[in-house]
Amino acid sequence: MDVALAANNFSFDRTTITVRPNAQVSVTYANNETVGTHNFALYESAQSTATPIHRSDYVNAGASITFTFTAPSTPGTYFFRCDIHPLMTGQLVVSADAPLEQVPAAPASPGADPYGY
Ligand SMILES: [Cu+2]
Fold first, then answer.
1. Which residue has the higher pLDDT, 111 or 8?
2. How many structural domains are present in the chain?
C-alpha cells in the first residue's frame, strides 16, 4: 500500500498511519522544510527506541524519498519518529481492518532527489 508522508514545521503531516499486518508499505516522504534533515524510524514503542523495525534514509530539506518496509505481523500500535528530532512523532496502527489505501495527504511540494531514487 502507498502512504504519502510529509514533514512540515518539524512535525509529520500525519500522526497516524494505519496498515494491515505484513503489508508492504511504500512511503513517499517529502521534507517540506527550508532547513532541517529528517528521517522516519519505526519502533515497537516510544519506550523501545534502541532497535528500529525500520529506519529510512535521511531526507534533506526540499527533497523527497520513497522507501518500503514490511508492516509488523502482530496487530497493535507502534511508534515512529524522526531520529534527529525526537519530538516529531506518530503512531503506526497495525490492524487487519485497515483500509487497503490511505487517504492521501496534501500534495507535497516537489523537490530535488539527492538519493536518485
Ligand atoms: Cu527531523
1. 8
2. 1
